[in-house]
Amino acid sequence: MEVNISNNAREVFQVVQKSKLSDISNRSDITKVILSFYDKVHKDPEMAPIFKMPAEEWERHIIRTENFWENWLFQTGNYHGGLMWVHIEKNQTHPLTTDLFEKWLSYWFLTLDELFAGEKADFMKSKALEIAQMMNKRLNA
User: Fold this and answer.
1) Which of 36, 50, 59, 112 holds its CA 20 to 30 A away from the CA of 105?
2) pLDDT tens across 70-89, in order?
3) Which pTM value belongs to this model?
């Protein structure tokens, strides 16, 4: 027997589930978000090629991404550099279209919503949206 759940009931369930989640509180939480996000992205046939790189480069990418978010969330001062040059280079081999930025954001938001709830998690979503809009404008104008 199949149970039909209304959209409203589904939304209530999601709100209840989300209320059980804690906010991001340290670098370990940031790492959890990043690794879960990339796990999703690597399973997407359209997104995976963009993030394909040698293992040692991948490790540096993860650390740099952790540093980026840790600096934004906790003002650690451990991130130096800009985001654009890497994406300009990547755009040469894998065009970063508006659709791909939207897909990237949907995976990012989904990951955060699955793992955390609170001010820091919301900040990571709003900052990611701001970054995606800026990059999309510069790469696809």
Assistant:
1) 59
2) 999 999 999 988 777 777 78
3) 0.82
